[in-house]
Amino acid sequence: MKRIHADKYAPKYYCGKWSWDKKKDCLHFEPHNDLENVRERYVMTNGYKFLRTINQEEELIFRHEYVRSESTFDADTVVINDIIDLTLFLMPSEFLTFRFVEFMHKPAVHRLIHALIIYFEYFLRMVEFVLIRRDELSGKLAQVQSEQTNEQKRIFSIYLSQYRMLVARNYSIIIKGENDMQKYYHMTEIVNISATIKDKYFHEQFLAVCTQIIWICMHRRAYNVIEMEMNRLFRSEHFIMKRQEYLSFTAAERSLLYGRYNKIVNYRTQISPLVQELEHIADEDLPILWIGERKYRGTDTRIAEIELEYIVPGPQLRMIDVAHGILGHPKRLYNTLLDLDWPSVRYSNFSYQDDPYHIIRQPYLKIPKIDAIKMRKASQNFEHFYKVYRIYEPCSRQKIFKWLRRDKIIQLYRSGGLLTNIISRCEKELADTTYGPKVEQIIANYFKVKSRLRKRASHAADDTLSVATSQFGSIITNRSLSRKKSNALNQDHFFED
Questions:
Q1: How confident is the model at residue 127 (pLDDT cuts 50, 70, 90)?
Q2: Environment class of residue 316 by beta-carbon count within 10 Å: exposed (0-12), middle (13-18) or buried (19+)?
Q3: CB pairs under 8 A, 24+ apart, for 27-35?
Q4: What single DSSP character describes residue 368?
Q5: Which residue from 456, 463, 443, 460 is spatially nearest to 494, judged by alpha carbons?
Q6: Which residues contact 485 (CB under 8 A, 6 or more apart)?
Q7: What global pTM score does this model have?
Q8: Cα 431 to chain center, whole Å?
């Protein structure tokens, strides 16, 4: 991961200049800011101010305290956890509550964010396609649409609805309060009283953080499109603000992007588009609701493609030649804010023939076959034999409390805390005469890290189908015929700390 600021040492004194204030009849200190444009320091998301960039001192604090450890899985690649950590560091102080930070590190929330990344990757391509077609159909050299073009658009719209259906499936688990999401359910037990105000602010903060996560993951492009679609998905079009930055679509374009089941009624009876997707599901799309829960067995290649995109971990997407934003990209190509460092890209010598991370190649929509819908209706589904285990690395309470102390830690370093460079740390270690940890403690720490990074023996049984490891999203599929009575199949598996 490249540094934004070249110098690794942040001075503890304020740089600036003194000027005479005539109104107050005293000296006024104007500190220098190392940012190129002070007005762009913050970005507004749903009424909340998120940091858009950081100064040298904040960068050192983030890299020293909150960057993911090298002992975790796929530490050299960008995963969802890296984007979440950066967003938590850039978000406002009022978001830092134990309930919210713990909620952001839950497996169900991780699956929802993963589905949102897949959906917006395809949605932004569809928006670009719509804008290009809008230019082609207007002007003096306007083109005439054929029936094959309209059929192709209908197929694209169905494909987009399938990704939206996957997001709705993961979101419904959260709003129903199932499993470990029960403590975040808005309805209090026994008395059955809803915490409406508390849940409203919690929902607003979650949408703002999700918008920032998707925006960072999509190379910080099309922010207004992401913000508008995020609010439409989780609420409805009644709650979308009228802003000049937002795109306006025609009725035909809205039908293409929002799906055929999107309906706008009175705001009192309006439901979110995600719930509308679950109300009208075609028979051939029903296996989508089981993606990530059990292995699909059938002849529908479209379901197999969606399952492959969903269950393959981010660091291994290059093996299937799929791009989901910056997921799976090497950290050496990005700086601390996860912005692409173009000098590093040039030195990597990527080309159109050798571009595993889709950095040089332009994202595109694969043209489907005209009879794709008929072929899907004629596909067969067979009885499933394998269930999918989801393995996650849990977030410790110590890390959660460190996030809650984020502002205090920053203030501590700014008020005189020691942020030293590598030369100062080496000099301090050479002058130190105390002994380090014992040999037994070093060996114990080594075996502890090794046991976390290696596969456990219990997962190496004869009935294992395949194993794919990553930090968030490792997939282990086992035969479920002999384990139907086990309740562990419906639970998430965690690595031991």
A1: very high
A2: middle
A3: 34/5
A4: P
A5: 456
A6: none
A7: 0.84
A8: 44
